[in-house]
Design goal:
heterodimer; A: about 230 residues; alpha/beta; Methyltransferase, Methionine Synthase (B12-binding Domains), Chain A, domain 1; Rossmann fold; 2 domains; five-stranded parallel beta sheet; 9 helices; B: about 210 residues; five-stranded mixed beta sheet; three-stranded parallel beta sheet; about 20% strand; globular
Chain lengths: ~230, ~210
Amino acid sequence: MSEEEDIILSELPDDELVPQMQDDLYDGLDEEVVEGVNILLERGWMPYDVLTKALVGGMTVVGNDFRDGILFVPEVLMAAKAMKAGMAILKPLLADTGAPRMGKMVIGTVKGDIHDIGQNLVTMMMEGAGFEVMNIGINNSAEEYIAALEEFDADILGMSALLTTTMPYMKTVIEELAAQGKRDKYIVMVGGAPLNEEFGTAIGADSYCRDAAVAVEVAKDLISQR
Amino acid sequence: MADVRIDDKILTEKGLNTGAAEAKTLLLACGALAREILAVIEANGWTHLALHCLPAILHNSPQGIPDAVEAAVLEHRPNYDEIFVVYADCGTGGQLQQRCEDLGVKMMAGPHCYAFFDGVETFEAREEFTAFYLTDFLVRQFDAFVWKPLGLDRYPDLLETYFGNYTKLVHLAQTDDPALTEKASVCAARLGLEFEHRATGYGELTPELARIRP
């Protein structure tokens, strides 16, 4: 996005530094994003403001351009790596500095599925929006999901699958929740490349989310309805 | 049909259209299967089958497959008694199966061509969910279908992001070609995965096509 050279981030005023950080995030420049985060913190910015205005703001542009076919998966992942580097600095500071807490989510890929790129993006964007997320990784059984939900005292269950062969397991998890009388305790959101709205409805999920940005908006909406 | 020139780049981007004038059934297939289907047809001397392949690169955007298949079915249906779709589910989440049912055409069983080359039941029983598969076509076209679309030529740092959860690359080999096996092993090394060569031949492709009567 940015073509300037030899920009000294520390010499930029805030109103130029933040857009520059968004450009750097868009371009996947993790070292520059980390530098920008540290500069804003040194200038007295609240961690939550750095997160939302510089990082989430930049990632929103990335998400929009991905949706519109301007950016592709590799570029989105490089931007996500840059955002993750910045968030690594901010995350330990957020809880102690009054950042809003939106709710708690457990997320993981279903049994037999190792494809975690999507859920890692969702995790990052949810955290960026003020949710606490317990990412339980790949290949999760119904028992593992339910144990994590209880351990984390979660509000939301997120399940992800990339394979046509593994996505039906989401229904198994939802049925197990229902069998244990726990279905109504949790908002269930599902996502993954082969899924669609119809599938989400058919298996009894509360929402199918097309991408990470949609997941954040849906989560906010469903939490507010509780 | 044997003298049809087959170019992987054309199969990837444009597809293929070939068949005897007397053909009654059209095989509507993924371009990645063109060589294998033509080899099976030639080996069995079948003149009742014509072949139309869609661009193989749809493999990388499976959400586009059902619409592409439907358009091809509607275009070619007037010229044939029957159309058989030589795609498996291919990551469409069951949508290709549904579309084929709506169109009244049959298709291959299984989640991917990997499964019908290996044998659908055998493939599912293996439960190799940490395996990354390449067919002969995908070995030849590794850069066009894997390396470049994933951006690994530009962002090698993403290798772990994409393949960190995989343990091995399995070459499902349709032909006995030592040079291709060597290329597949190099692909595995580039992805940082163990390599396994598995000779499948054409698997369930031959018996499935043999069911189509002249």
